């Protein structure tokens, strides 16, 4: 697997990568409010059967993201074809690299490809004097939540109805 900066020609292949996933668990939000407190918690809930979920972002976002000439990485197979990508933008006013997309082709999942991309993004963030990395995912995307936690990201907030389909986003950060 070779990780490199994406080229324009790579975007069509990145468009075609299937970002959907299957999950057995979700983070279910519980919120309670009274006149003095607001309590929000997320419970890990096992689903009665595996659920397939569509990726919440639109592929049309990739070209503008790539044009920003920041951190848009592809992992390519031995033939040079992208099988995964990660795009991250720098938010210098917060010293944060914000991971917007991380998609691995189904055939290459659970083989360390996402980890390799994440390490490359971490190097890019450090080289650009960023102090943290952030990522967001749906509460339904338990595989991504576990991936973030495995790599040292910690939960740092949520946004109700963040995605176009009304799903909740949970946010994770990692100090560099």
Structural notes for this entry:
By secondary structure, the chain is of the alpha+beta class. It has a single domain, classed as 3-Layer(aba) Sandwich (Aminopeptidase). 21% of the residues lie in helices and 44% in strands. It has 4 helices and 9 strands. It has a 7-stranded mixed beta sheet, sandwiched between helices. The longest helix has 15 residues. The radius of gyration is 17 Å and the shape is globular.
Question: What brief labels describe this structure?
Answer:
single chain, seven-stranded mixed β-sheet, two-stranded antiparallel sheet, Aminopeptidase, alpha+beta, about 180 residues
DSSP helical segment count? 4
**Quaternary organisation of the protein chains:** single chain
| Helical content (DSSP H or I, runs of 4+) | 10-25%
For the record, the count of structural domains works out to 1
List the helices and strands and how they pair.
Layout: E1 2-5, H1 10-16, E2 21-33, E3 38-53, H2 62-67, E4 71-76, E5 82-91, E6 96-104, H3 113-127, E7 132-138, H4 142-150, E8 154-159, E9 169-175
Parallel strand pairs: 6-7
Antiparallel strand pairs: 1-4, 2-3, 4-5, 5-6, 7-9, 8-9
Summarize the structure.
The protein is α+β, with helices and mostly antiparallel strands. The protein has helices spanning about 10-15, 60-65, 115-125, 140-150; strands spanning about 1-5, 20-35, 40-55, 70-75, 80-90, 95-105, 130-140, 155-160, 170-175. The protein is built from 4 helices and 9 strands, in the order E-H-E-E-H-E-E-E-H-E-H-E-E.
């Amino acid at each position: 697997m070779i990780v490199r900066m994406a080229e324009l020609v790579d975007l069509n292949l990145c468009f075609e990568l299937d970002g959907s996933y299957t999950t057995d668990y979700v983070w279910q939000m519980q919120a309670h409010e009274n006149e003095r407190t607001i309590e929000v918690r997320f419970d890990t809930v096992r689903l009665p059967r595996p659920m397939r979920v569509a990726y919440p972002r639109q592929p049309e976002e990739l070209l503008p993201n790539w044009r920003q000439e920041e951190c848009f990485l592809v992992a390519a197979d031995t033939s040079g074809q992208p099988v995964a990508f990660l795009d991250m933008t720098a938010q210098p006013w917060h010293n944060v690299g914000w991971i917007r997309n991380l998609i691995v082709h189904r055939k290459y999942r659970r083989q360390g490809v996402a980890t390799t991309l994440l390490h490359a993004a971490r190097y890019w963030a450090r080289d650009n004097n960023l102090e943290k990395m952030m990522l967001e995912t749906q509460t339904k995307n338990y595989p991504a939540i576990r991936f973030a936690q495995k790599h040292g990201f910690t939960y740092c907030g949520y946004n109700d109805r963040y995605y176009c389909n009304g799903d909740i986003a949970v946010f994770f950060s990692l100090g560099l």
